[in-house]
Write a structure and sequence with these properties.
With 135 residues, the protein is of the alpha+beta class. The protein has one domain: RutC-like (60s Ribosomal Protein L30, Chain: A), CATH 3.30.1330.40. Helices cover 24% and strands 26% of the residues. The chain has a 4-stranded mixed β-sheet with strand order 3-6-4-5. A two-stranded antiparallel ribbon has the order 1-2. The longest helix is centred in the middle third of the chain and has 18 residues. The protein starts with 5 loop residues before the first strand and ends with a strand. The mean pLDDT is 92. One of its GO terms (molecular function) is deaminase activity. This is RidA family protein. Belongs to the RutC family.
């Protein structure tokens, strides 16, 4: 038996659905997986690209691999946190377009944060997830 997540955008809050996320996600009882922040590091140790859009592609690949390891899909993501070192509209638009494509219509609760630095000086983007693991 699979229980679905409930997404809410109450009319008393800004309509987050227009931006591709939900204000509230209600999770039925069951296991949750907390996926560490994924950055533009490759398993083979390849170089980190300087462009944030290219970093986003690697981050999304890593997020996809984490979901595969959990036997989950994007519709099981409860919450995402996105950290960016150079938060401006162009970078945000680029990253969010890629995140939106990755989510494929799922609208988890989402928080975006501008930060001074990440784990290494060449990193510009980090994304972490909370995932409701399928039974």
């Amino acid at each position: 038996m699979t229980l679905s997540l409930s997404r809410m955008n109450p009319t008393s809050l800004p309509d987050a659905g227009r931006a591709g996320y939900s204000q509230i996600t209600v999770v039925p009882p069951g296991p949750l997986a907390f996926v560490s922040g994924q950055v533009a590091w490759r398993r083979d140790g390849g170089p980190v690209p300087g462009d944030i859009a290219e970093q986003a592609d690697i981050v999304i690949e890593n997020l996809s691999l984490a979901l595969t390891a959990l036997n989950a899909r994007p519709d099981r993501i409860v919450q995402m946190r996105i950290y960016m070192t150079d938060l401006h509209q162009g970078a945000l638009d680029s990253v969010m377009a890629k995140i939106g494509a990755f989510l494929d219509g799922a609208q988890p609760s989402l928080t975006g944060v501008g930060v001074t630095a990440l784990a290494a000086p060449d990193l510009k983007l980090e994304v972490e997830m909370v995932v409701s693991v399928p039974a």
